[in-house]
Amino acid sequence: MAHPSQMGFQDAASPVMEELLHFHDHALMIVFLISAFILYIIVIMISAGLTDKLVLDSQEIEVIWTVLPAITLVLIALPSLRILYLMDEINNPLLTIKAVGHQWYWSYEYTDYEDLAFDSYMIPTSDLTPGQFRLLEADHRMVVPVEAPIRMLISADDVLHSWAVPSMGIKMDAVPGRLNQLTFIASRPGVFFGQCSEICGANHSFMPIVIEAVPLAHFENWSFRMLEDA
Hints:
A five-stranded mixed β-sheet has the order 3-2-1-5-8, with no helix packed on it. 33% of the residues lie in helices and 26% in strands. Helix 1 (15-47) packs antiparallel against helix 2. The chain is elongated and about 85 Å long. Strand 2 and strand 3 form a beta hairpin. The protein folds into two domains: 15-88, Helix Hairpins; 95-229, Immunoglobulin-like. The chain is of the alpha+beta class. It has helices spanning 15-47, 59-88, 216-229, and strands at residues 95-102, 105-110, 117-120, 142-145, 149-156, 161-165, 170-174, 180-185, 190-196, 208-214. The chain crosses the membrane at residues 27-51, 63-85.
């Protein structure tokens, strides 16, 4: 989860988020270089006197300011396209989970299990126990195994919602009457928080998303207990 006064992104909890962080640093370095170069040009123009006020054009300068931006765009576009294709890649998911947004909670259905489905509501502030986070904790977490490709099917029952978990680098709109899909891999065990990222009504800020990544054996035990309770 995010920390107070945090300036950067959350720590990556999936391979896609690691790639996004690397791309962010890559693009930011290019932005710093361009900003420093422009600042240098401004300082030179202000501090130095113009030596030739009759120059109307310069082929060399025009070539430079055409070629350099083109190279810069290529350096940014190629890594960006690579990550876009990685985010859309879905190869033999171990588990498929359907998440449906409602006003104002999420429901989850493990489509590989016949009766494994539940609703996930935010825990009210008055019911929080020590160590739990306000507006982020849910009464039922979405439990997934670590280091396994998970396919999410995202939809909504009433209005537009958005299923987003920043530390996983995933965000997908939940549209009524439509199924959107995404995939992610939890690279380490832990609890990862997200929230609806589409303004969906009065209680928009009260429908958190909680993913709990556990080892495969623990996931199997959890699913067995959930099926027994059902």
